[in-house]
Amino acid sequence: EGNYHTQNLRQFLAEVEQATGGKLAVQLHTNASLLPMPQIKRAVQTGQIQMGEILLAAYGNEDPFFELDFIPFLADTWEKARALNEVTEPVLRAHLARQGITLLYLAHWPSQAFVTRTEINRAEDLRGARFRAQSTTLARLAELVGAIPVTVQQAEVPQAFSAGIVNVMITSAQTSVDTSAWDFTRYFYDVGMMYVRNAVLVNTRAFNALDEATRKALREAAAHAAARGPGLAQNSERTMTERLRAHGMLTPAPNPEFVAAMRGFGERMAQEWAQKAGPEGQAALERYRAMIR
Questions:
Q1: I need a surface site. Which of 138, 151, 208, 283 has the fewest CB within 10 A?
Q2: Which uninterrupted H or E stretch holds 131?
């Protein structure tokens, strides 16, 4: 409940309910309590549920554009993250629309860090590690560093670390606080190599069945939620890192040699992504790189 994504969602839904005079009220189920996250997109698509929020990159095996923001160091500052969002949001809307899904808004996570039990100084320190990979992109990064990719959903992270199923993950300070990472890890290396996104979706048929005034209220509230997102994420980045320190976690500056190695892997992964995504993906990368020059 303390997660800013959840708070933003609650405000979004409250705005919709107020704007429609209570005509549209949405019941929110947090922390994958209604469906496991890997099932949410399909459930929205089929109409099993009307709305849902997903981590886009978790569905990267369906569409290369879903996983683009998980490529290390492609967009490693907030300025670059905004540029990548501007380039890819129209593409994502179009791709989802073909599946009967309307994208309401995108919301960034804070800077992503390596969270580990042991110290990391070089990429070789990850060799053989059991690496939580919540996306195909992170699974590929795990392979490149010689680690073992393991799929673990957020709600299962504490148990997975305690049982030795994983011993390293890439995540935000927010998720580290949400999962009480100080109970099972020691180091938080804020490498800042990506700003990944959640997507809030609605079934298009259900959306179109609403009257125009209600659809307008949804669109306007979604625009407000999207506008709030970066500020909420940046605030979380600061305050949640402080919370980790207060609970005894160490937050050392990453070794430059380690960062350089991750950049190299990111460049290779960007090339692989462009080949997989084809002309549309290559054009998007060119537009993005032109924006950040």
A1: 208
A2: strand 130-132
Q: What are phi and psi of 121, to 5 degrees?
A: -120, -30
Instruction: Render each residue's pLDDT in the chain as its tens digit; 293 residues.
Output: 679 999 999 999 999 999 999 999 999 998 888 998 889 999 999 999 999 999 999 999 999 999 999 999 999 999 999 999 999 999 999 999 999 999 999 999 999 999 999 999 999 999 999 999 989 999 999 999 999 999 998 889 999 999 999 999 999 999 999 999 999 999 999 999 999 999 999 999 999 999 999 999 999 999 999 999 999 999 999 999 999 999 999 999 999 999 999 999 999 999 999 999 999 999 999 999 999 99
Answer whether 170's CB lies under 8 Å from 147's CB: no
| Residue 268, phi then psi, degrees to nearest 5 | -65, -40
Kindly write down the DSSP assignment for every residue of 48-114, as one continuous string. SSSEEEEEGGGGTTT-HHHHGGGSTTTS-SHHHHHHHHHHHHHHHHHHHHTTTEEEEEEEE----EE
